[in-house]
Amino acid sequence: MARITKEYHVRKNELLDAAQELFFTKGYKQTSIESIIKKIGVAKG
């Protein structure tokens, strides 16, 4: 499987959008890094 590389600002905006959506739906304390990266489909690390 080929690695998909996106520009820094594109990936950053994806992460922030996913985090914001999860904060609104699950709450800040119930949102984890794992849930954010799972939502946008990237590997942890």
UniProtKB/TrEMBL annotation:
Keyword DNA-binding (UniProt): yes
HTH tetR-type domain location: 9-45
Keywords: DNA-binding
InterPro entries: Homeodomain-like_sf, HTH_TetR
Statement: the UniProt record of this protein carries the keyword S-adenosyl-L-methionine: no
Molecular function as annotated in GO: DNA binding
Stated name of the protein: HTH tetR-type domain-containing protein
Lineage, uppermost ranks: unclassified sequences, metagenomes, ecological metagenomes
Gene3D superfamilies on file: Tetracycline Repressor, domain 2
Listed Pfam families: TetR_N
